[in-house]
Design goal:
The structure is a single chain. The relative contact order is 0.12. The protein has 3 helices and 13 strands, in the order αααβββββββββββββ. It is α+β, with helices and mostly antiparallel strands. It starts with about 30 loop residues before the first helix and ends with a strand. α1 runs antiparallel to α2 and α2 runs antiparallel to α3. Strands 1, 2, 3, 4, 5, 7, 8, 9, 11, 12 and 13 form an 11-stranded mixed beta sheet that branches. A two-stranded antiparallel sheet has the order 6-10. β2 and β3 form a beta hairpin. Helices cover about 35% and strands about 30% of the residues.
Amino acid sequence: MSDTQTTRPDPPGPVAWPAYDPPPPVRPEPVRGGRRIVRAFGAVLGVQALVAFAVLLVLNSYRRSAAGWLLPLIGVADVAATLQICWLAIRDIRLLGGRTAAPRLLLTALVLLLAAGLAGGAYAIHRHTTAPVRGALGTPVQDGDLTFTASSPRCGVKIKGIAATGAWCSVRLTAANTGSAPLRLDAAAQRVRGGDGARSGSLLLSPSRSKKKYVRAASRPLPAGSSFSGYLLFDVPPGFAARALELHAAGGSRGVRIEIEGA
C-alpha cells in the first residue's frame, strides 16, 4: 500500500506562477557636503534669531536690571550651540568620505560673517534702547519713577548771592516721585546741550518756607509720592546757546531728551 501523494504549492520564483520579482532595495540619497553646509548654516541662523529675541526680551522687560549676568550667559550658550552645529556638520561630511578642509573653512567664514552682523545689530539695538526718550517743554515726561516738567532754559541770568564761573542757565523744573521707594534728585545727573557740548547741572533752588529766599542744594531727597518744584541751574560759558535738555532719574538711567525750540 503506497502513501498518497501530497501536493504542495510551488514556491514563488522565476519558474512559478505568478512570477515574483522582488523590487530592488531603495537606498537613501546620500547627503552631499554642500547641502550639509547649507543645513548647518540654517541651524546657526535659527540659533542667532533665538538669541536676538532673548536679548531684546531682557533689555525691554523687568529683567533689564539683571542684564549684567544674563547677557553673558546667553552669549556663552550661543557660542556653545554654534560650535556644536559646526562640529556635527564636519563630522557628517567626514563620515560620508568627503574632504573636510573646504567645508570647514566655509563654515568658519559664514559663522564669522554672521557673528559680525549680529554684533552690529546688537550695537544698534543697544543704542536704540539706551537713547533718551523724546519729550517736550511744559509737558510731563517720565524717566524711571520720576516725572519731569521743564520750561525752556534761560541763559545769561544773574542770581543774587550765587556766583557762577561763567553764566547761569536757569530751568524751571518740577520733578515728582511716582514710585513706591524714596529717590534722590541729583542736579549733576541733568544736562543741557549746546553747540560746544553738554554741561551738567550745578544746583537745585527751591523756595524756603517763608517764600522770600531760595534753598540751594546739589541734590534733594524725594520720598515716595513727594515732588520738587523750583529751579535747576547750569554753570555754562558766556554766550552759551542751549539746544536740548536731558533729564535723568539717576546718573545711569535712559533719560528724557527735550529739544529747545528755535535753537
